[in-house]
Amino acid sequence: MKNLRLTILALFFCSSLxxxxxxxxxxxxxxxxxxxxxxxKDGDEILIKEGVYKESGIAVDKSVKIIGVGLPTVxxxxxxxxxxxxxxxxxxxxxxxxxxxxxxxxxxxAILVSKSKNFTLQNNVLEKVFFGLLIEKSRYGIIKNNKLxxxxxxxxxxGNGIHLWHSEDMQIENNELTGLRDGIYFEFxxxxxxxxxxSYENLRxxxxxxxxxxxxxxxNVFTNNGAGVAVMFSKFVKMTNNxxxxxxxxxxxxxxxxxxxxxxxENNTFSKNTIGISVDGSTRINYKNNTFSRNGWAIxxxxxxxxxxxxxxxxxxxxxxxxxxxxxxxxxxxxxxxxEYTGYDLDKNGIGDVPYRPxxxxxYIAHRTPESIVLLRSLFVxxxxxxxxxxxxxxxxxxxxxxxxxxxxx
Length: 410
Fold this sequence. Notes:
- The protein contains four helices and 37 strands.
- 41% of the residues are buried.
- α2 links the parallel β1 and β2.
- The termini are far apart.
- The protein has a domain at 53-317: Single-stranded right-handed beta-helix, Pectin lyase-like (Pectate Lyase C-like, 3 Solenoid), CATH 2.160.20.10.
- It has a 13-stranded parallel β-sheet, with no helix packed on it.
């Protein structure tokens, strides 16, 4: 075993010695990226010096490091995909990539990675892209510290920033995405991490994923996107410490959950959204330590949602805290703080002595007849809400928070 280790170390050392460095610049012997790649061997570094390189259709089929020095610009001149990578153990970093081709039939991207493993895409600036980073059938990738900016005008004629399809074990970290269709898009992706990204002012979703299991989304900020964030047809999802802010519109929400199972949604902030969370057909989700502040609806539950638990959340000054369209309830609300709670705490233990009913009759009416929302905060609404509170008929009589908190959770 010892001899085997020594042999592996010797081979690695020899391959490092054999690796070479190729410089690309206007005054260098090698003047284009394509020329450098034709000369390169596995393990080589290609240093692209500062300047403008008008190239597209660049094929990377070797395990090389492509490194920009001084943020050189690769201009695709709106023709096609700029980099197409079909190799393992590669990296592309420090480039400014602009003017990706547009098409209604082909997914042109700044960088397309296909059937690759062990790669890094970092510290790049992508501008005027169709798709930014398009990853398909790949594993063990790191995508971090990239800035993706586009000027999408309509959904049909635009693409996504970071788009992953049939991939796994990916790390998406510290990226900035704006002006795209969807900032980050996952489809059939598993065992991946999305962390510390900022996705804002995109046409549709800041984050959109479907059929993607066992993924984590932590410490991200999603602001002012056309329809917020959509999470669909997935299970074993963990979302913590994210911010969903100012996603306004008749079809917009901070977070949409559509047929999600066995998820953890903790320590997130939902502020100034039309709907904080819209939940449809989702089961066994734990909502804990989240803050819902100044939303139209804090939580809107539609469809079959069972065995969900809402514990120790803050509901602060929302127009409607909870909308629920069924008389059957198997979800629990326990130890939450409700700014609308008017009960008392005689024994001074920090828990209200009177249970709180978060579902008001008016939320039921507004769900059935959306036009009635114009009556919000009227005396008529106060009267019907009080009557339903005294004798529940339309809302679930067991949907209670039996231990509402008297103080906001810090």
